[in-house]
Amino acid sequence: MLVPEFVPQIFASWYMPAIYTGFIIAFVGLIGIAVPKRDIHVLILTDIIGLAMLVIVGAVGTDLAEALILPGLVVELAEILAISEILISREMRKKDKIPSLFPTPLTLDMEIMTTAPNFLAIVLIGYGVFLTGFTGGAVAGSGILVYIFSRKVRGLPILIIDGIGAVSGISWCLWIIGFFLFFVTPQFWLLSLFLAACGLLLKVASKMGLIGVLMREEYNKK
Amino acid sequence: MLDLGLWFYSGCFLAILGSLATVWGPNVQDPIVRTFNTEIAAIGVSLIFLTYNHTLALLTFITTSVAVSLILLRAITRLEEMEADV
Asked: Contact A43/B72, CB-based, under 8 Å?
């Protein structure tokens, strides 16, 4: 087996046990799915298959593994979210019922929700912009979420939701231009790095803001 | 402190044990028990990431595993609320 020299010896010696662990988990999980069960159980077992994928990717043991695990996690999360939504909406359609969004009535009657959100949102967004990149996007997005969930703003017009979507698209363009410049003109690496980082910041922050707006709209419907 | 391999192999063991517990464990006909059993496997995978020094991956994995269990619990409770047979 050809192992690059920058992989530590101990990681290389763990490769086979980790791969076997991944295969055993995947085998057990797939057997569990193959036995006919209720849909919700299949959804839970999908989580186990995702873990097997993560172990097999992580066994590579270099930065490449880390770079591959992050999108894998996001895809797994999105997949489970989508399937659970499909299950719930199918049952709702069958029963002709409209249950509440949250299982228990959510009453957030804390003083901090009315007094602090402006300050908290500004601090979080400012720190997120300072960080840039994926982490900064997550921090800034949680700032937007805090602001939206504290319900200081009400009844956003559809134009703003479309606008957030447009910002998301523009940020993808920034990201792609940054990557393109990286390969075409490597001497401008700092410019392309900042293009990619700011694009990713806008992308993640606007996505989290959009999720917050959609959840708030559904929550206030009742 | 302790040998690094100990953490790695205990991670592998916990991951396999958790997946077995999720599929054939006691009382798994209750979806909530099944969801909590996946957490054992998640702890095992976290230990494996820890020994490989995948710091960012470990932090993101902890966050997403919490989010996944919240999503699953929400789906379970809402389906039970509707008295759906899925």
From this structure: yes
